[in-house]
Specification:
Blueprint: H1 2-13, H2 19-72, E1 83-86, E2 89-93, E3 103-109, E4 114-118, E5 128-129, E6 135-145, E7 154-163, E8 173-180
Antiparallel strand pairs: 1-2, 2-3, 3-4, 4-5, 6-7, 7-8
Length: 185
């Protein structure tokens, strides 16, 4: 008889969880999972925004560096000088060692929204883009100031670029500006 009572008692002590306890546990679990998935989605969006901003910045800096290097080595002591054909189009004679005083040109191609570089205007080769198709250059302005025989000109380049093909919440727009003085050779 003692064995039978002990068995009944042990069965009653292992009843399990009630329906209310299960509902509370599931509710707490759902709240935690929802909060964690929201934080994960926000971190993924932030990572995408960061990668997009880096891409636009890298492309913009590269284009500015290419243009600045060529302009720094441009001719300033000739009658040709720096010719601004339009606010987004400049050409000049380059003194770069491999250019042989060729006239080079930078301009914004509005059909592709890319900055184009023609390393010799007189040859038949087409100009090459110096910005990636992953960004759109929406504005490019060359401003030449301080042009006189006694002083060096200053060329200010202003560029507005934006990411292409990205979702609206991670789209990046960036304005980049630099001023260059050609070297007197």
């Amino acid at each position: 008889m003692k064995k039978l009572l002990a068995t009944r008692y042990s069965l009653r002590s292992e009843q399990g969880y009630s329906l209310i306890e299960l509902m509370v546990a599931i509710g707490v679990f759902a709240v935690v999972v929802t909060a964690l998935s929201g934080m994960f989605a926000i971190s993924l969006r932030g990572q995408g925004k960061s990668a997009t901003a880096q891409n636009v910045g890298d492309n913009g800096r590269y284009a500015m560096e290419v243009m600045a290097k060529e302009i720094r080595m441009g001719t300033i002591k000739t009658t040709e000088g720096f010719m601004v054909n339009s606010p987004s189009d400049i050409q000049f004679r380059s003194n770069m060692p491999n250019r042989n005083s060729a006239i080079v040109r930078f301009y914004l191609d509005t059909a592709t929204n890319q900055i184009m570089f023609d390393d010799d205007v007189s040859d038949a080769l087409p100009p090459e883009p110096i910005t990636s198709a992953n960004i759109a250059v929406n504005a490019l302005t060359f401003n030449v100031s301080g042009v006189s025989l006694s002083s060096q000109p200053r060329i200010t380049i202003v560029m507005r670029a934006a990411s292409v093909g990205t979702a609206a919440d991670i789209e990046t727009r960036m304005d980049i500006q630099t001023t260059i003085s050609p070297r007197s050779l």
